[in-house]
Amino acid sequence: MEHNPLSALVGGLAVGVAIGALLPKTQAEAKHLGPVGRRITEGAAAAARAAREQGRQEIEALIPDKGAAKDRVSSLVGAVAQAARDGAKDGAKTA
Predict the structure, then answer these.
(1) What's this model's pTM, rounded to 2 decimal places?
(2) Which of the residues 10, 17, 24, 58 has an alpha carbon 20 to 30 A from that of 33?
(3) How far lies 63's CA from each of 46, 56, 70, in Å?
(4) Domain residues for 44?
(5) Who wins on pLDDT, 26 or 90?
(6) CA 7/CA 4 separation, integer angstroms
């Protein structure tokens, strides 16, 4: 504990949480802490839904539009074909 008191504190908290989870809930706990637990659960679920939606939107933004991708590929193929034709013409002139 002298060399690493923070680890001892975290370990003690973990043991306390484990013991608390094993003890049965009392009616007073359920009465007073039940609404808080529900609010926390609902808030966490809403945050998870919002994060999932945001992630989905960001992924969709990264995926190129199919039509735009086809146009780019067609343009690239056309440029390569034109370069090949020009190269063939230049080769024929040189020969």
Answers:
(1) 0.39
(2) 10
(3) 26, 11, 13
(4) 32-62
(5) 26
(6) 6
